[in-house]
Design a protein that fits this description.
Rossmann fold, alpha/beta, 9 helices, binds NADP nicotinamide-adenine-dinucleotide phosphate
């Protein structure tokens, strides 16, 4: 059920958007600010110019001290957090056999533990006031794992699992969790590459990397698509646990849900030309 709040009500609602210096976070913060919310964005290194549209707080989601300081500062300024848009993240592109434990840990440290750190920091003040909405930016990769994105998919699957458990635990309260599962979005998201690449995987990697680059650059969905979903769900008094964003993601997640594993594997292999590549460059 949707409840449209008045501009005055929005004006008093405080929303923290992590990773608001670019891409999806920036588009979301911009739209929410235009709609009248009291928006705070974050960046690891906020520039003075960035804070002119909405206040930007420094935040490194991999640091306990930084997360604590960010939430403390917001509470000192506003006394409340109505919604957290847990968006900060990056993507590691590498085959499983190219991914060191250190690289896998770094991916999960930002995308999963960073998001969890933020949830753990905002839940106490939300519990205290009895209301709050955590909106976690997951991914199509939170539902489907494609080759060369194993560590990224693992980080988003972990975020999905933790959010789903939390949603059950929050039953009977007015606190809510929503997962957004966007398709490729036109943001220029930072790709981290493995320190050691295997020559025998070079052809497949080139194909997959160029596909992912196209999907997150010129062929990606408009970031405003996600921003509008956030603006919609934040107003929803009974928000869904998951929202898929983008037609491609809707089709793929639906196929994942309905097809037998083997059939789904064939469909993905055919879409990504996985069986037609020569083994080596
Ligand atoms: N683009 C896509 O196709 C796509 C698809 C599905 C899901 N997503 C998800 O959407 C989210 C946003 O990605 P985007 O595409 O908008 O990429 P982006 O433009 O690169 O934005 C990422 C944001 O995260 C912040 N960030 C990165 N690492 C951080 C850290 N350790 N601590 C604090 N902030 C950090 C960056 O801020 P600073 O560098 O200023 O600190 C930046 O504002 C990510 O969670 C990503 O996984 C993206």
């Amino acid at each position: 059920m949707e409840s449209r709040s008045t501009p005055e009500a929005r004006n008093s609602r405080v929303v923290l958007v992590t990773g608001a210096s670019s891409g999806l976070g920036r588009a979301t913060a911009a739209l929410l600010a235009r709609r009248g919310y009291r928006v705070y964005g974050t960046s690891r290194q906020p520039t003075p110019r960035a804070g002119t549209e909405w206040p930007m707080l420094p935040l490194e989601v991999c640091s306990d001290a930084s997360v604590e300081a960010c939430v403390r500062e917001l509470l000192a300024r506003e006394g409340r957090i109505d919604a957290l848009v847990n968006n900060a993240g990056h993507a590691f592109i590498g085959a499983v056999e190219e991914t060191s434990l250190q690289e896998a840990r770094a991916q999960l440290e930002t995308n999963f533990f960073g998001a969890l750190r933020m949830m753990l920091a905002v839940l106490p003040p939300m519990r205290e006031r009895g209301v709050g909405h955590i909106i976690n930016v997951s991914s199509l990769s939170g539902a489907v794992a494609v080759p060369f994105l194993g560590a990224y998919a693992a980080s988003k699957h972990a975020l999905e699992a933790m959010s789903e458990s939390l949603a059950h635990e929050l039953r009977g309260t007015a606190l809510r969790v929503t997962l957004l599962q966007p398709d490729g979005m036109r943001t220029g998201i930072g790709f981290h590459h493995p320190r050691t690449e295997r020559p025998d995987l070079a052809v497949k990697r080139r194909r997959l990397v160029s596909l992912l680059e196209r999907a997150t650059r010129e062929e990606g969905n408009d970031p405003d698509l996600l921003a509008h979903e956030v603006a919609r769900v934040i107003e929803d008094s009974a928000p869904p646990l998951r929202i898929i964003i983008g037609e491609g993601a809707k089709r793929l997640i639906e196929a994942r849900r309905t097809l037998p594993e083997v059939e789904f594997g064939k469909l993905l292999a055919s879409a990504l030309h996985l069986d037609t590549e020569p083994a080596t460059a």
